[in-house]
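Lesson 9: reading folded outputs for more than one chain in a single document. The general rule is that every protein is listed as its sequence immediately followed by its structure tokens, and records are never interleaved. Here is the first one.
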Amino acid sequence: MSYMKDIALLVDAKADQFCLISDKVWDYAESRFQEFKSCKEESDYMEEQGFKVTRGIGGEETAFVAEYGSGKPVVGILGEFDALSGLSQEAGNPVHTPIVPGGDGHGCGHNLLGGASLAATVAVKDLMDQGKMSGTIRYYGCPAEENAGGKAFLVKAGCFDDVDIAITWHPGYMNKVTENGSLANFRVFFTFHGLASHAAGAPHLGRSALDAVELMDVGVNYMREHMIDEARIHYAIINSGGTAPNVVQAEAQVLYAIRAPKVTQVKELYERVCDCARGAALMTQTKVDIKQVAAYSDYVACDVISEKLGEHLDEVIPIDYTAEELAFAQQFREAITELDKNNLKGLAKKIAGKDAAKILEQPIWNFVIKQPLGGSKGSTDVGDVSWVVPTGQFGVATLAAGTPGHAWQVVAQGKGSVAHKGMLAAAKVMAATACDFLTDPALVEAAKKSWLETLDGETYPSPLPKDAKPEIW
């Protein structure tokens, strides 16, 4: 039996509250481990709704869990609320117009992600109050998904040890259940220490840390030819050693992201990158400090949960958009780059074949995509949860088709009615799926069995160093 009709009524009854919370989080636009206002907004609301709220879980000041009910099964719904740096943008404006130049913005839609997950959890709680099911429902307010992998630290701290089923979603421009295959990812700082000297008067007395960074980067770039095609390595020079060219730079720092389909593959690449750093230090007679600050495991989808998510996704899609909403989305279809438009054409051909032109005419892709498209080339700390709990994830369209991720166009659309409708649809899917598992012990066992079969004897790879801790860097 589907609880979708009951769930839809409950979500719609409080829709204004959920949209307001999402919009406030959009306004706060707080980045990793600094989401103090966003955390308070959501946790206070859940307390008002009758949940038992525990703040500061897993050593993360801005992480919390809101729990209702008792006993088994325990279903956890995962939310996020962190923003991205440098993506400040006016809401609703299809022209790049930062509110605060260089400020933060919700370029990945986490205001909506948290809003929907929170709404889903509240709806399930309201059904429990009607006596229609028992068990435990939890909302996990998870910070620092971007760049810091906040959930990996929560997993390390045991915050999911008693959870039976985990459910989450992500905003985007496609309605689709998420497949296996996000990339595992290490974030690593390489800090080089040299000797300062007058670059003209006594260059022989200096040892340049910036030279070491540049030589390391060259080494890694040559290494790309000799690694698996699916791997990705990117870097940013965080500290170039100052702005004076007539001083040999005594310190310089570079931050690396090292990705591959499996954590074991990332670990191997990590050691090779570290060797490039050590070699650069040797060549320049500098010293290097290596510090891994974050890690993401690859995502392992539970087929049983995915199937239920797909069933309920079919119940809420298509969404009823107005002519004004379609016109709004069309503005943003026109605001993306030619490269993004060409990429969209390729994706449309993969989805619709000869009928690609028909879906390219739609400013919002208002249909469920059934075809496998291959795993995401990005990374998510949901992957870490999926190694310790049977997990399901899906996407709902909140953006104009073709909108690039981590871009100002995402921020601009994050408070519109199209985004709100997608968020509420996602909430209904998650809540209905949670009800399936709360009312059917056999389904919970089937999910665990399927998940274990997928893992095929592998266990959580524990990608974080033992001494790693959540921190702002």
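And here is the second record, again sequence then tokens.
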Amino acid sequence: MIENLNILKMASAMARYAAERHQVLSQNIANADTNNYRAKDLEPFADAYARFDSARASNSGTSLSSNGTGSFARLVDVPGSETPNGNNVSLEEQLARTTQAQADHETATVLYKKTLDMLRLTLNSGA
């Protein structure tokens, strides 16, 4: 049972992804008035994790920062209407995305904690 705890690996990756996404979104908010700034986001977690997991399975040395940028997820452009200065950051949309990233991080940490609680319970029961 303890030899293969993929759920902990996935929860850890999800928490890192949410933190990285929050950083990207905060950069968008900080540049809301920058001329010609294009909003960015990370690709969906499921896509990034599937690619990372398949790379990890084929190469045991793969880490979460496997793309060389400190993240295993790819940056994608966020479509949106431009303002007269060429910027396409919508503060309302960025705040909604930030709220989702925060919820994803909380989900990952709860999942991680509950998994550890179940392991402790199993070990303490002598099973």
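What the second record shows: DSSP finds three helices and two strands in the chain.
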